[in-house]
Amino acid sequence: MAQRWGLIYAEPRQSQAQRTVDKQWRKQSAQAGKALKTLGQTAFAWAADAQQALTRFGAGWPTTFLHASTVRPTPPYGQRGRPGPQAQPAQMLYPIAGALAARLTDRQARVDQHRCVLLATNAWDEGQ
């Protein structure tokens, strides 16, 4: 059966599309925040491993991106309390610290996608 398909941007669906996208956006942003917190609690033995983990993390979230991220060496000492002046660290660890930011241009594209209505018809007359 021959059909015609049309994509229509419906203005009345704008508010519903924004609510839907905002709900999805908040959920995905909360998940990204939890994942970043978990990643920040992981201390890496090598700086290269920490950078690789940051790269993998950044590619996995469509709603957010890493705005400011740092990998800085932290020397843990083998005992509790303030280390003495001659104390040497047992090893160097590389924890990750960072902040997330939203991708606003992608959000607007999603809103536009959600407010579309697909119209399919088998009427071939252009006047209808």
Low-confidence stretches: none
Broad structural category: alpha+beta
Multimeric status of the protein:
single chain
> Biggest sheet, strands in spatial order?
2-4-3
Number of helices: 3
Using DSSP, what is the number of strands?
5
Biggest pleated-sheet summary: 3 strands, antiparallel
Distance between the termini: 18 Å
Radius of gyration: 25 Å
What is the share of helical residues?
Answer: 25-40%
What is the general shape? Answer: rod-shaped
Task: Walk me through this protein's architecture.
The strands form two sheets. This protein has a three-stranded antiparallel sheet with strand order 2-4-3. Helix 1 (14-40) runs antiparallel to helix 3 (104-114). The two termini are 18 Å apart. The protein has a domain at 37-75 and 92-117. By secondary structure, it is an alpha+beta fold. The chain is built from three helices and five strands; from the N terminus they run E-H-E-H-E-E-H-E. The radius of gyration is 25 Å and the shape is rod-shaped.
Which descriptors would you attach to this protein?
128 residues; three-stranded antiparallel β-sheet
Short description:
With about 130 residues, the protein is α+β, with helices and mostly antiparallel strands.
Give the arrangement of secondary structure elements.
Elements: E1 4-9, H1 14-40, E2 43-44, H2 47-59, E3 64-71, E4 94-102, H3 104-114, E5 116-121
Antiparallel strand pairs: 1-5, 2-4, 3-4
Helix pairs in contact: 1-3
